[in-house]
Amino acid sequence: MMLALLCYVFAVASALNYLEDPNKISSRIINGAEATPGEFPHQVTLLRNGYHMCGGSVISNEWILTAAHCVEGQTASNLAIVANLHSFSNPGSSYHYFYISQIIMHPQYGVGSGAYPNDIALIRLNKVSTPVDISAMAIPIAKDLNDKFANAQCVISGWGVTESGSGSNVLLKADVRAYPHTECRTAWGTNNIVESAHLCVKGESTAAGSGSCNGDSGGPLVCKNVLAGVTSWGRSGCHVGGTVTHPSVYARVSTYASWIATTCGGCV
After folding, report:
1. What is the DSSP letter of 64?
2. In terms of pTM, does the model score above 0.90?
3. Tens of pLDDT, residues 202-221
């Protein structure tokens, strides 16, 4: 079994017109359900050259938190952020399109123990071109290193690949349980999981289970009303015949809270 980062580029037409072609989108959390419009105001889509690639979370008026592998090798000029979006086919006029002024990957991304360590990054929005205040959309980040969220009921959201391969035009969600560290290591092996870096989750409301997939990378895991994780990696293929066999793995935000605060100039 192979591990896989959950980043993916969807063909979604170009730049400002990308919302007009929903049939080109392949987007859904595995075995997820449609979110209520506005349910996850912190959720954003990260575009590369006008195409949906990853998710992210608003953590302040100027800053987005996402996965490092989503921005690795990218430049600010070929990326953009869209906030306050629910439906690609019926976007309305309230979504906000932002150019990007700065990308900051964690300096130790890919360095250290476990699979895909330190997979976290910050994106600074260009507020000159789009002077919209989105601070009300921000979600608090997890800061308590002692709260491991073991067995907490959490929620994930995103526009990642569906179990059937068909597209969804709307933001989807899934309720998930955060695994205790020992259970996560049992699922993925001791060499792949480091408690300080990783947080595992899986939906268990049905026998098929639920989880994140390609295109969900960088998106939010919310536990106890805080941003507890950033979508990082999972099982290659995400599911077996529609059944999620392994938990999705997230970068544990509380471990990086100090780095986030310092890097964004105290934005959180």
Report:
1. E
2. no
3. 888 777 777 777 778 899 99
Catalytic residues: 69, 119, 217
Residue with tokens 């980062």: 5
Cα dihedral: 122, 267, 174, 49 (round 10)? -30
Q: Where are the alpha helices (DSSP H) in the chain?
A: 68-71, 181-188, 257-263
pLDDT tens per residue, range 42-94:
999 999 988 888 999 999 999 999 999 999 999 999 999 999 998 877 777 88
- Residue spans of the chain under pLDDT 70: 1-29, 160-168, 236-237, 239, 241-242
